[in-house]
Amino acid sequence: MKSEISEAGVAHDEVHDFETAAKQTVGQDTMDQARLGAEAEHNLRPLAAIRKYPWAIFWCLVVSMCVVMEGYDTNLINNFYAYPTFAKKYGHWNEATNNYQLTAPWQAGLSNAAGIGCFFGTLVNGFLVTKFGHIRVLMASLVALTGLIFIVFFAPNIATLLVGELLCGLPWGIFATTAPAYASEVLPMSLRVYMTSWTNMCFIIGQLISAGVMAGLVSNTTEWGYRIPFALQWFWPVILLPVLWFAPDTPWHLVRSGRHEDALKSLARLRPNATEVELRDALGLIVYTNNLEVQMSVGTSIWDCFKGFELRRTEIACVAFAGQILSGLNYAYNSTYFFQQIGLDSKTTYNLNVGGNSMALFATFVSWFCIMPYFGRRTTYLYGMFAMASVLFIIGGLNARTENDRVAMSQAVLTLVWTFIFQLSVGQLGWAIPAEVGSTRLRQDTVCLARNAYAILGVIAGVLQPYFMNPQEWNLKGYTGFIWGGTAFLVFIWAFFRLPETKDRTFEELDILFAKRVSARKFSTYKVEAFRDDAALYKVQSQQSVDAGGKEV
């Protein structure tokens, strides 16, 4: 048996060798437990899973609530540019617009400061979680953030504010990448997509809170009009820290660390209604999957994400997540500045902002109950991206007549329609897909790389977007829709050829499908019969096959 996987791919016989070696490594008892655990995963429906694993859901909700702070502040800073007291404090009087404005370079800097901080926080998070576990890293990050908020609250000038946003981004990057990885490791397969995408819901909750706070304080003519929104960020660490002290770490992390008994105890805490046999079966599946990936030479370093078939998994995670930016997020989602530039007054602007965030929250629930149970990740992502591209092109076309108030209002409403579609599809799955698609041994690193791909493009978009919109720069207004509509359409084309279907697939099944380099368009129909007693443990029941060179068919 070969001990390493070549860059060219993995042949059928080699995959069978890995499976046989994994079986021999874990022993027959663990193999039987793994088989029963996999059957239980496939047979467990969402409602039954909710009744069976209430504490696992609870801890996912708590961990993901850390992301509320990032959603709150990123929405805050991007929508402060049209905020009168904030613009007066940190901007300059503009004769052309007859109001205070921040220059485009400072807008770009503030928009991207937190993103740059998130990039570096995310970069170290994979290493930290591998060494210390999810919970301890989260708690240390909350303590650090509590101190860093003082910088943005007391910032006497725009340069200090920028530094504060940059430093706050470090723990935010940790929150945003830990939450979906934690959810994917403590929940059964039927609930995986809901709680990994719950991270996105937390962003929306944070954005909705900030929109409401700004709408309530927009008429305040003192410095507290913008300081109070900053101060409210202290609320979350005070609430979350004492609760997280009691949170269990994930059984997958404990198995990777060689602590099998601790992993069993963690499973018992996460699944209190499960029997001893069910817990042993669940642990057996985790141990078997981990050993299968060890036999496939899947490491735990971030560099392993770029080796062999892991490179394809990393590409899918990164592009799926970065697709949120390329779909027009910086333009259509944080839209108060756009509303101002097309002539809407401050009150209308911030009321529309509250309405947009409320619509986003509603769309998330619609997605959970009407789309996720019935449609696959691939289908939802494809149709969502195409619909958003279409809306952006329409906004761009309408810009030819923005002197008409009704046309301007139509553009504003279409950005809300875009927001609704975004949260029905890409807004949710941009978080869920990276948490599902990576190997279990590289899950945290895969999520971190995907988040950084998002962050890099977010910085680029954050630099360009103010220049697109600022009346002192390119002043494109609604024509910006043509630019982001074009990038959204390109992601649609990529997804058609490269995005596989991960719905109803356990992690060991995904390992085999990627190892065999199955075409993305055939993932949902490719038959995998697991845990056979002969050498071909995962004999593929399909007319399609992969040649010995690992080419897609």
TrEMBL record:
Keyword Ribosomal protein found: no
Major place of residence: membrane
GO CC term (a single one): membrane
Keyword hit for Lipoprotein: no
Molecular function terms from GO: carbohydrate:proton symporter activity
The protein, known as: Probable alpha-glucoside transport protein
Domain Major facilitator superfamily (MFS) profile residues, every copy: 59-503
Topology of the protein relative to the lipid bilayer: Multi-pass membrane protein
UniProt keywords, alphabetically: Membrane, Transmembrane, Transmembrane helix, Transport
Subcellular locations according to the entry: Membrane
SUPFAM superfamilies, per the entry: MFS general substrate transporter
Regions crossing the membrane: 53-72, 110-130, 137-155, 161-183, 195-218, 224-247, 316-334, 354-375, 382-400, 412-433, 453-469, 481-497
Family that this chain belongs to: Belongs to the major facilitator superfamily. Sugar transporter (TC 2.A.1.1) family.
